[in-house]
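User: Fold this; tokens only.

Assistant: Input:
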Amino acid sequence: MKTKVFLAAILACIGITVKAQDTKSEEPKGKAIVQVFANFHSGFGADKKNLGFELERTYLGYEYKFKDGLSVKAVMDIGKSSDVSDYQRIAYIKNAMVSWKKGNMTLNGGLISTTQFNFQEKFWGYRYIMKDYQDMYKFGNSADLGLSIAYKFADWVSADAIIVNGEGYKKLQINEGLNYGLGLTLTPVKGFNIRLYGGINDNTEEGKKDIVNMAAFIGYQSDKFRIGAEYNHMLNASYKGGNDQFGYSVFGSAKVAKFADIYARFDDLYSKNNWNISKDERTAIVGAQFKVCKYVKIAPNIRMTMPKADGAENKYSAYISCYFGI
């Protein structure tokens, strides 16, 4: 029943686009996608053994834009896997998608980027240094196989809907359930953004519960600085009833020179009745970013992790994060 209602909502959004005005055709063009995240880090105190160089993630791909708003993109993600030794790297297909833009509507299909925290990640702006809150604490997947649609009703309001497998891009479809999400983005004044999202990840196995995600974000950005805050709540983590997780993240950055800016962020993760106390924590980071050239960024930073489990020691570390991208 939920599937039928959600698909009806998507079809209704598509129907609205019939009234959209035609856009001017652009000449076909393509571009390579190359992004490399690396760092050197050194731990202190309880984390003193955490020392060395790290190639955290590499994205390799290509995007080609045809005429009349049609484009295709394929991206390979080479990174860590929890299933093998941390010294090994595994390659995944991150994106294999087709997009179509018509007037105020954008339609994506295939192995697409999800909409659950994509807006917050872009607003944070330092993905190569630290993941967005929901990505870091596994509230959802950054890409999945399915369909999404977004429509801009006015300069100040847009909405989006998505339906995907719910397993992410690193796993095959395992159960018969799907992940449905609806999002609303508001820009009441220039630079001021509000983002609301709700999603349900179906489960078809007896005795397990649907995963429910709710998120709210508010932020302001200008040419000189940006500041944002988000609250996230996940019910029935891993499809287990009562395994709820929630928390917030606040962050900001300011441009101090044409080639440099400073940033800071604080995260707090909780679990209902402390069911996940061994992983509940607070995390803080502060640092600077320097643009060496158009393609290279270097970001020294200090991090502190404060576990909530009894007897767990705080961890301190220093990083030099590096980014290369074209």
